[in-house]
Design goal:
- The chain has about 450 residues and is α/β, with parallel strands linked by helices.
- Helix content is about 35%, strand content about 15%.
- The chain has two domains: about 160 residues, 3-Layer(aba) Sandwich (Rossmann fold); about 280 residues, Ribokinase (UDP-N-acetylmuramoyl-L-alanine:D-glutamate ligase, 3-Layer(aba) Sandwich).
């Protein structure tokens, strides 16, 4: 146990481990003053627990595969560690010990970018309290935080619920009741008619995956607009969908009438031909006029990034689904993970849209400002076609007029990640492919309805 005189929680953990039968030693980082919390818990520490200050000239030799609990510093840091504290952290990182951090690895900032080369404990496991810290959810911090979990410590739940925040962590509890059960006398018209514009020569598979995901997502009717080259493939592989072929053979050149449709999705395998760009421009304008929910993905996002003037044509509440590189083309390169979140908030507020920034803990930006971080999914989902499936699922949920744009986005991202988790239980992460994720969309949505 490595602790500091400014904190008492490390001493509490040491006492509890001792009472549970573990052999515990406590080393304290030298300090000139003591908090009341530290003093009280130092007095409560059983005499049998060895407790001493660290000698910076001769730091303790740790046994092979020792387990160390890091309780040196917490969430209040405003500057990088230096001096003795930095030396101890560097030594611990080189020790080969298995490190558990309390609340935050010592030296890690909770809500700000980490300065380059600053001393931070590289924990294998981090145990937080009540709610996850933002730092847990960002890619740069993964090597410091390791695996993490959050434990309840009986904080006032009413206070937590009523505290204004601009970041949310999405789990099944937050989504409870948002996906309504299907009425007894529902029919295919109840759940909307969706239009998917997808596919080009060599990329019809993306249209197939998105179409299948849309159908598994519960849409009532689906029409796929695709070039002639995709007709036989889609009719054979997705017989439940209607196929509306474009006059062109290899890519989409014309926009069909939007009147029959409750929602429109565009992008999977679309290609970036000049004629297809004009279709996207017409779609943005007509979707605005008709107030039709719109999902924009893949090549449609790349066209927006190349022709940024089209961003001003986005209809209110449009839903964009970029991965980080696609998002960068829409905005600018991010300096760090926190800057990327600033860009996400600014982008969604400027264009009055929703934006699904894909990755581990996928972040959903909203027109109102809050960002929602998703709790489901696994590294096996980093595979070609996974995003096409997400687009199809979001299209199905947006076509369901019973759902708000926010609920459709939250449910779609969560269910997509959960489908990936269910699939990985059978395939493993390395063997997971996009079709596996699509296959488990139904069970994932069923779990949400049952909440």
């Amino acid at each position: 146990m490595w602790s500091r005189q400014q904190r008492g929680d490390g001493l509490v953990v040491a006492r509890q481990l001792h009472l549970s039968g573990y052999a515990v030693r406590v080393w304290l980082l030298p300090a000139t003053n003591y908090t009341s919390d530290f003093t009280v818990n130092r007095q409560r520490l059983p005499a049998e627990v060895a407790c001493a200050e660290l000698n910076l000239e001769k730091l303790p030799t740790l046994p092979a595969k020792a387990t160390v609990v890091d309780a040196l510093f917490g969430t209040g840091l405003s500057r990088p560690l230096e001096g003795a504290a930095a030396a101890v952290v560097t030594y611990l990182n080189k020790s080969g010990a298995v490190v558990f951090a309390i609340d935050l690895p010592s030296g890690l900032f909770a809500n700000a970018p980490q300065p380059a080369d600053s001393a931070v404990v590289q924990a294998h496991h981090t145990v937080g309290f009540e709610l996850p810290k933002l730092a847990y959810l960002l890619p740069h911090n993964a090597r410091f935080v390791g695996e993490w979990q959050v434990l309840p410590i009986s904080l006032n739940q009413e206070f937590i619920h009523n505290t204004p925040v601009d970041n949310y962590f999405v789990d099944a509890k937050l989504l409870a009741g948002r996906l309504p059960k299907r009425p007894k006398f529902a029919h295919k018209g109840t759940f909307g008619h969706a239009l998917l514009l997808a596919g080009s020569y060599g990329k019809i598979g993306a249209a197939v995956l998105a179409a299948r995901a849309c159908l598994h997502g519960g849409v009532g009717l689906l029409t796929v607009r695709t070039p002639v080259v995709g007709y036989s493939i889609l009719q054979t592989t997705v017989p439940e969908a209607m196929v509306l072929t474009d006059p062109a053979i290899d890519f989409i050149t014309e926009l069909p009438d939007l009147k029959p449709y409750a929602a429109v999705g565009i992008g999977p395998g679309l290609g970036q031909e000049a004629a297809t760009k004009e279709v996207l421009k017409q779609l943005l304008q007509q979707a605005t006029q008709a107030s039709v929910p719109l999902i924009v993905d893949a090549d449609a996002l790349n066209l927006l990034g190349t022709h940024r003037e089209l961003l001003d044509e986005l209809p209110t509440n449009a839903l964009l689904t970029p991965h980080p590189k696609e998002f960068e083309r829409l905005t600018e390169p991010a300096r760090d993970d926190y800057h990327r979140l600033e860009l996400l908030r600014a982008f969604c507020q400027r264009y009055r849209c929703y934006c699904v920034l894909k990755g581990a803990y996928t972040a959903l930006g909203t027109p109102e400002g809050p960002v929602y971080f998703n709790s489901t999914g696994n590294p096996g989902m980093g595979t070609g076609g996974s995003g096409d499936g997400l687009t199809g699922l979001l299209l199905a949920l947006c076509a369901d007029q019973r759902l708000s744009p926010l609920d459709a986005a939250l449910l779609g991202v969560f269910a997509h990640g959960r489908a990936g988790d269910l699939a990985a239980q059978q395939t493993g992460e390395a063997g997971l492919i996009a079709s596996d994720i699509v296959r488990f969309i139904g069970p994932a949505l069923h779990e949400l309805v049952a909440q």
